[in-house]
Specification:
Elements: E1 4-10, H1 14-17, H2 19-24, H3 28-38, E2 43-49, H4 59-63, E3 67-71, H5 81-92, E4 96-100, H6 107-113, E5 121-133, E6 147-157, E7 167-174, E8 179-188, E9 191-196, H7 209-222, H8 251-255
Parallel strand pairs: 1-2, 1-3, 3-4, 4-9
Antiparallel strand pairs: 5-6, 5-7, 7-8, 8-9
């Protein structure tokens, strides 16, 4: 079995600034996620953070990444457009992307969606969230119960301004009454994209075993096949077969009437 190469990207600002958050994630959110991914057979995970040179996402790093996980919240504007374009290019070429929690407002997710995906309702009230599996045959939900709950999370509520998803995997209900499409998928170019809502920094969400199972499954789902046909995008290729003289292909001769 070939190894899935994962890079977990995180701003790593909340953990550095707030002791209470650092107590929940002493190695950062990225370190927590990489830790449980590395415990899985067939997955190897590294990390990258905002303050690293090129945000840790050099072309070499991305070229050696099968699936990129993205967690961002307070510094979306600090991510350089050059790096966003680089990530975008890799997704279009087949790299998987898993966007977590407030990564919905990241430059890369907005670029891939083409909408203002920051438009939603939100509330921080430590309320209960129940995630319902509404696509039980999907690979991302394998090994999960039909629903599971988180005792405390930040609320996100509809309407969520995103393009119509190719698949809706989870819908969340919150204690205050709102609902939200908490797990949706897209295909962009040759790449697969999964957005997963839970993961507010002040709660131990990424220590939850069901949340970990979702992310592990999503990584396996999002990886590009190792043996894809080479698809040449943005090229002007030579024809595979001879083309008749363009004069013979005029509208008049093909259509059976005189061309103007």
């Amino acid at each position: 079995m070939s190894t899935i190469r994962v890079t977990v990207w995180n701003e790593f600002l909340h953990e550095a600034r707030h002791e209470a958050i650092r107590a929940i994630y002493p190695e950062g959110i990225h370190g927590c996620i990489a830790g449980f991914l590395n415990a899985q057979e067939g997955i190897t995970a590294g990390t990258a953070t905002l303050r690293e040179e090129q945000h840790g996402l050099t072309q070499e790093v991305l070229d050696n990444t099968d699936v990129l996980l993205w967690w961002g919240h307070m510094a979306h504007h600090e991510v350089s457009d050059e790096v966003v374009d680089r990530v975008y290019g890799r997704v279009m070429a087949g790299m998987g992307l898993v966007v977590l929690h407030s990564g919905h407002a990241s430059k890369i997710f907005r670029k891939l969606c083409g909408t203002d995906s920051d438009a939603l309702r939100w509330r921080e009230a430590n309320e209960k969230e129940i995630l319902w599996v509404i696509n039980p045959s999907h690979p991302i939900v394998q090994g999960l119960p039909e629903q599971f709950s988180l005792p405390h999370e930040e609320m996100y509520g509809e309407p969520f301004v995103i393009p119509k998803p190719e698949e809706i995997v989870f819908i969340s209900w919150f204690e205050g009454g709102e609902v939200f499409r908490s797990g949706v998928t897209y295909k962009r170019g040759l790449g697969k994209v999964f957005y997963f809502r839970p993961g507010h920094e002040t709660f131990p969400t990424f220590h939850d075993k069901n949340i970990q199972r979702v992310i592990i499954n999503a990584v396996r789902w999002a990886q590009a096949p190792k043996e894809m046909p080479r698809v040449r995008l943005g090229e002007n290729p030579d024809p595979l077969m001879p083309i008749r003289d363009m004069q013979e292909n005029t509208l008049g001769k093909l259509g059976g009437y005189d061309a103007p």
